[in-house]
Amino acid sequence: MKLNGEEEEEKVVVGYALTSKKKKSFLKPNFIALARNKGIFFVAIDLNKPMLEQGPFDVVLHKLPGKEWREIIEDYRHKHPEVTILDPPDAIQHLLNRQSMLQNVAELNLSDCHGKVGVPQQLVITKNASASTIPYEVTKAGMKLPLVAKPLVVDGSAKSHELCIAYDELSLLKLEPPLVLQEFVNHGGLLFKIYIVGETIKVVRRFSLPNVGKHELLDVDGLFRFPRVSCAAASADEADLDPNIAEHPPKPLLERLARDLRRRLGLHLFNIDMIREHGTKDVFYVIDINYFPGYGKMPEYEQIFIDFLLSLVKNKV
Ligand SMILES: Nc1ncnc2c1ncn2[C@@H]1O[C@H](COP(=O)(O)OP(=O)(O)OP(=O)(O)O)[C@@H](O)[C@H]1O
Ligand SMILES: O=P(O)(O)O[C@H]1[C@H](O)[C@H](O)[C@H](OP(=O)(O)O)[C@@H](OP(=O)(O)O)[C@@H]1O
Ligand SMILES: [Mg+2]
Ligand SMILES: [Mg+2]
């Protein structure tokens, strides 16, 4: 966007609509200052005023829950096709349901990429299903315990991140549909978070749930509830870990996975939670994909975002 005045300096205006939590973790003062030095200005979108009366923006960055916001941003997108919307609401919508979230991964064919990427076997238990039918459905699907039970819808609420592990059949009766049941995959207690920002990929390691052995399966019964593991889990990047567990997934595999998912999902900003099946070198599972995740926890996110925003505007000219 050209500034009025004698020197026609290039300026990038980024309108944003974020929750206060996201604003605090992402729009940190030093990021805002660094961006400003590069001609990038962040402007809050006023939710109490019509969006069409605001701007002009080069880019709109958003993550707000609810249908109302989705309609506002969709309408704006159609009336302002020249503005880059990060990201289109219909594409984001795909990630807000744990069933559709992993569909694209299941359909990928990453042969010749130094490894295999799949999704754990999973089963959807719909809202109207009675919990009493779950053991039967699980057996019918040929799924093995333990199972991770996840709320079907991811709406940004703490509740949508309240997961539990069901160790035995009886505990399945205590579950509250709608949910997705996923086979628990032993992965040595370590998770790879693959952050994507446009074409940039950054991988960090986090501690995760420990392996479940035959012993635990005999001794532990019931439901084990665990709220928000990924946010609470400490970074495992500096830890002294077994290299068989902690070695990063092969770069060509990550590059193909990120590229293919970016295209299939139609998104620029997301992260992928990936685990390596314990005892293997190259068998991986994607267990979660998040839209516009906690980039504040990604090393060097400030520079990565600045380069990304500038590249978006440059590629439009
Ligand atoms: N199928 C699985 N096998 C083993 N562990 C799993 C599985 N699914 C989830 N986990 C563990 O549970 C954690 C939370 O699961 P998941 O990432 O699906 O939840 P989430 O609430 O969407 O997390 P986030 O905060 O990343 O959005 C994972 O980080 C991992 O430690
Ligand atoms: O550890 P990460 O960066 O994955 O944490 C993310 C999390 O994965 C989800 O994307 C959260 O979004 P919601 O699903 O909407 O709750 C992020 O929360 P946010 O409030 O920062 O968007 C976490 O940071
Ligand atoms: Mg996760
Ligand atoms: Mg998630």
UniProtKB/TrEMBL annotation:
List ligand-binding residues for 1D-myo-inositol 1,3,4-trisphosphate. Answer: 22, 63, 161, 193, 290, 294
Cofactor(s) needed for function: Mg(2+)
Residues annotated as domain Inositol-tetrakisphosphate 1-kinase N-terminal: 13-92
What positions does the entry give for ATP binding?
Answer: 98, 150, 182-193, 208
What residues bind Mg(2+) 1, as annotated?
Answer: 273, 288
Q: Which GO terms describe its biological process?
A: inositol trisphosphate metabolic process
Q: How is the cofactor bound?
A: Binds 2 magnesium ions per subunit.
Q: Its catalytic activity?
A: 1D-myo-inositol 3,4,5,6-tetrakisphosphate + ATP = 1D-myo-inositol 1,3,4,5,6-pentakisphosphate + ADP + H(+); 1D-myo-inositol 1,3,4-trisphosphate + ATP = 1D-myo-inositol 1,3,4,5-tetrakisphosphate + ADP + H(+); 1D-myo-inositol 1,3,4-trisphosphate + ATP = 1D-myo-inositol 1,3,4,6-tetrakisphosphate + ADP + H(+); 1D-myo-inositol 3,4,6-trisphosphate + ATP = 1D-myo-inositol 1,3,4,6-tetrakisphosphate + ADP + H(+)
SUPFAM superfamilies on file? Glutathione synthetase ATP-binding domain-like
Residues recorded as binding Mg(2+) 2, renumbered to this chain, are 288, 290
Keywords tagged on the record: ATP-binding, Kinase, Magnesium, Metal-binding, Nucleotide-binding, Transferase
Q: Which residues form the Inositol 1,3,4-trisphosphate 5/6-kinase ATP-grasp domain?
A: 114-310
Recorded GO molecular functions are: ATP binding; inositol-1,3,4-trisphosphate 5-kinase activity; inositol-1,3,4-trisphosphate 6-kinase activity; inositol-3,4,5,6-tetrakisphosphate 1-kinase activity; inositol-3,4,6-trisphosphate 1-kinase activity; magnesium ion binding
Q: What is its EC number?
A: 2.7.1.134
Q: Which InterPro entries match?
A: Inositol_tetrakis-P_1-kinase, InsP(3)kin_ATP-grasp, ITPK1_N
Domain of life here?
Eukaryota
Q: Which PANTHER family match?
A: INOSITOL-TETRAKISPHOSPHATE 1-KINASE (PTHR14217), INOSITOL-TETRAKISPHOSPHATE 1-KINASE 2 (PTHR14217:SF19)
What role does this protein play?
Answer: Kinase that can phosphorylate various inositol polyphosphate such as Ins(3,4,5,6)P4 or Ins(1,3,4)P3.
Q: What is stated as this protein's family in its record?
A: Belongs to the ITPK1 family.
* Assembly description: Monomer.
Question: What is the designated name of this protein?
Answer: Inositol-tetrakisphosphate 1-kinase
User: What species does this protein belong to?
Assistant: Medicago truncatula (Barrel medic)
Q: What's the encoding gene here? A: 11437604
